[in-house]
Amino acid sequence: MPYANGYEVLSSFRNDPVTANTPIIILSSIGNTATIEEVLSLGANEFISKPFTSADLLGKIKTLLNTREHTNISLHEQR
Predict the structure, then answer these.
(1) CB burial class (10 A; 0-12, 13-18, 19+) of residue 15?
(2) Which is it for strands 46-49 and 25-28: parallel, antiparallel or unpaired?
(3) Per-residue pLDDT, 72
(4) DSSP string of 9-68?
(5) What whole-number distance in Å separates Cα of residue 32 and Cα of residue 3?
(6) pLDDT band at residue 2 under the 50/70/90 scheme
């Protein structure tokens, strides 16, 4: 990334009201515990270490969509 690293982009997304609730999956070749903990603490929803399979990515996407759908249903029921 020419002007920002992934941490900065993630923080920017989370601090912008337009994108704050957008699900984010981080894909990185740096899969050590410290990196994973940091991106999750900055607001990433999921982390996948490279190399990964399409099944890995699709599984994470499905999990996020199901979680989001469940949250939307719960919020709708509370109204």
Answers:
(1) exposed
(2) parallel
(3) 58
(4) HHHHHHHSTTTTTS--EEEES---HHHHHHHHHTT-SEEEESS--HHHHHHHHHHHHHHH
(5) 24
(6) low
User: Could you tell me the pTM of the whole model?
Assistant: 0.78
What pLDDT does residue 74 have?
52
Return d(Cα 72, Cα 69) in angstroms, integer.
5
Of 14, 64, 63, which Cα lies nearest the Cα of 43?
14
Contacts of 61 (CB under 8 A, 6+ apart): 25
- Distance (Å, whole) CA 38 – CA 52: 20
27: tokens are: 């894909």
Confidence of residue 78 (pLDDT cuts 50, 70, 90): low
